[in-house]
Design brief:
The protein is an alpha/beta fold. It has one domain: Muramoyl-pentapeptide Carboxypeptidase, domain 2 (2-Layer Sandwich). It contains three helices and seven strands. The protein has helices at residues 13-26, 38-43, 67-77; strands at residues 2-3, 29-33, 57-62, 85-89, 94-98, 107-112, 115-117. A seven-stranded mixed beta sheet has the order 1-2-3-5-4-6-7, with helices on one face. The radius of gyration is 13 Å and the shape is globular.
């Protein structure tokens, strides 16, 4: 079951496929943020060129599944589904995944205290 599935509206096909694949694997996907209008993105302090404003990013958690387990599955499948960046927020137990461009090697970054950890 996908909680807040309406937040997929405006997202590109690859993002919708991502959420459904995670839901098929783990169930109980909770969408925190999908497509954002530029005004809403600015209001909440999103990055100026956030992939959310293009419908190419999603912030999710999976109820009763540790985010590292979900991230591990994503990393294993990231090229198969053409997802390119996976940001893991350990403090709040959620993932940001986007499909901006397809690099040769997917990018994985950790997010902590509203900053990217290098």
């Amino acid at each position: 079951m996908i909680e807040n599935e309406h937040k997929l509206e405006g997202c590109v096909h690859d993002i919708q496929t991502l959420v459904r694949a995670i839901d098929n694997k783990f169930g109980n996907v909770n969408i925190h943020s999908g497509y954002r209008t530029p005004d809403y993105n600015k209001k909440i302090g999103g990055a100026e060129n956030s992939q959310h404003i293009y419908g190419k990013a999603i912030d999710i958690s999976v109820n009763n599944v540790h985010i590292i387990k979900v991230a591990s599955w994503l990393l294993y499948n990231i090229l198969k589904y053409k997802w390119t960046r996976c940001a893991i927020n350990l403090r709040e137990n959620w993932l940001h995944v986007d499909c901006k461009d397809v690099p040769e090697i997917p990018i994985v970054r950790f997010y902590q205290n509203r900053k990217w950890v290098q």
